[in-house]
Design brief:
With 418 residues, the chain is of the alpha+beta class. The chain has a single domain, classed as Cytochrome-c3 Hydrogenase, chain B. It is 50% helix and 13% strand. The strands form four sheets. Strands 1-2-3 form a three-stranded antiparallel β-sheet. Strands 6-7-8 form a three-stranded antiparallel β-sheet. Helix 5 runs antiparallel to helix 6. The protein starts with 11 loop residues before the first strand and ends with a helix.
Length: 418
């Protein structure tokens, strides 16, 4: 009798993205699959380059503050604060303690709104749209508060070199406390939905695992690192603004679960617990904020511009953004108004490589959940390169400018013809 041989199905390669309903920004994944299981994973960003660094090196530092704020649509204070910290080190400008506390309060309010948006997006990827709508509804409270404090819900324009552009009055402190009480009352409901719901636990436990060993090797930052047991937090490791005066520690998932697995669920735990932590930080800031202090170290913009033009040197500004550490490298040359060099390393840039071990071994259906679990910001981090077959062509800043002008002229010609 002839024995029937059953051959194991061979793997195949498939692409996921760059345009996909599960992604809020474009990124392309190349996957080697065996059935529904991912054997190997790789990714390629590069579809959202905007040339912001190039533009910044053609503007004076005061103009760059507003440009930096628009690197990310969520991190309104993150990039502006990091850039200002670097410039202040070079020019030896010291903001007042009151300005430091105001910066910290706004930064933590931003962390609350960013984490709530992330929780909603992750719930949507899980197919839990009622939790998505709840998270966004709850987030409206802090956005309204930020608008009352700064004049805008997202791009606050409150950070300036040498301090802040707006004060926080006693009446506004009462509004802040009212908002914090709202989140105190809502917090247990968020815990019940995101941390105790059986369907979320079943879907997220042991999905997208990043072990502590791989986390140390790949150097992710923020909640992605802390969810894998890495005690990394710029606010604690290298305190700045008012953080050195505050009672703060890195949040790890074992504070809630008693263990660390480094999976999607642990990344949910860290962010939910950080909501509570931010509430406490803001209250402590209001209680300790000095009553006196200049908002700006150099209030006259002409004087400030002259000082910056005379500054010479280089520095790195850092901030623990909601997604993790952000770094801005700035070099100023005496006699030049614009920065000689400006390089931004967003937190997502550090977290991307963690996608590969998270995805490998998991299922195709888990890709949106795993990708969203690090809270990626593609537009913060994209770099550009042209690849044609085996030939790779790097586009210089002059090439990008030329292509942009050509495209605009082409569009204008099409509109005129139409």
């Amino acid at each position: 009798m002839k024995t029937l041989e059953v051959k194991k199905p061979s793997g195949y390669t498939s692409q996921f993205g760059p345009a996909h309903p599960a992604f809020k920004e474009p990124v392309m994944f190349t996957l080697e699959l065996e059935g529904e299981r991912i054997l190997k994973a790789d990714f390629a960003p590069g579809q959202a380059h905007r040339g912001i660094e190039w533009m910044g090196m053609r503007r004076n530092c005061l103009q760059v503050v507003f440009l930096a704020e628009r690197i990310c649509g969520l991190c309104g204070i993150t990039h502006a604060l990091s850039f200002c910290r670097a410039v202040e080190q070079i020019a030896q400008i010291q903001p007042s303690n009151r300005a430091h506390y105001i910066r910290t309060i706004i930064a933590e309010l931003e962390r609350i709104h960013s984490h709530l948006l992330w929780a909603g997006v992750e719930a949507h990827q899980l197919g839990f749209d009622s939790a998505f709508y709840l998270a966004l509804k709850v987030r409206e409270n802090v956005l309204d508060l930020l608008e009352a404090l700064t004049g805008s819900r997202v791009h606050y324009s409150v950070i300036q070199i040498g301090g802040v552009r707006r004060d926080i009055t006693p009446e506004q402190c009462a509004d802040i406390e009212k908002s914090l009480q709202f989140y105190d009352e809502t917090y247990e409901k968020l815990v019940s939905i995101f941390l105790e719901d059986t369907s979320i636990k079943m879907r997220c436990r042991d999905t997208g695992v990043l072990t502590p060993e791989l986390a140390l090797k790949l150097c992710p930052v923020g909640p992605t690192a802390r969810a894998s047991g890495i005690r990394k937090d710029v606010r604690v490791d290298h305190p700045y603004a008012a953080y050195a005066d505050l009672d703060i520690h890195p949040i790890l998932p074992d504070e809630y679960t008693g263990e660390i697995r480094g999976d999607v669920y642990d990344r949910i735990v860290v962010r939910i617990l950080e909501l509570k932590q931010s509430i406490g930080i803001i209250r402590e800031c209001i209680a300790k904020m000095p009553e006196e202090g200049d908002l700006l170290a150099i209030p006259k913009l002409g004087v400030l511009l002259a000082k910056l033009k005379a500054a010479d040197g280089e520095a790195v500004g850092r901030h623990e953004a909601p997604r993790g550490e952000v770094m801005h490298y700035v070099r100023l040359t005496a006699g030049e108004e614009a920065p000689t060099a400006w390089k931004v390393k967003a937190s997502s840039y550090s977290n991307y490589m963690a996608w590969i071990p998270m995805l490998e071994g998991d299922q195709i259906a888990d890709i949106p959940v795993i990708v969203a679990s690090i809270d990626p910001c593609i537009s913060c981090t994209d770099r550009v390169a042209m690849v044609r077959g085996d030939h790779t062509e790097l586009l210089t800043k002059d090439d990008l400018h030329r292509l942009s002008v050509e495209r605009m002229r082409r569009i204008q010609a099409e509109l005129s013809a139409g």
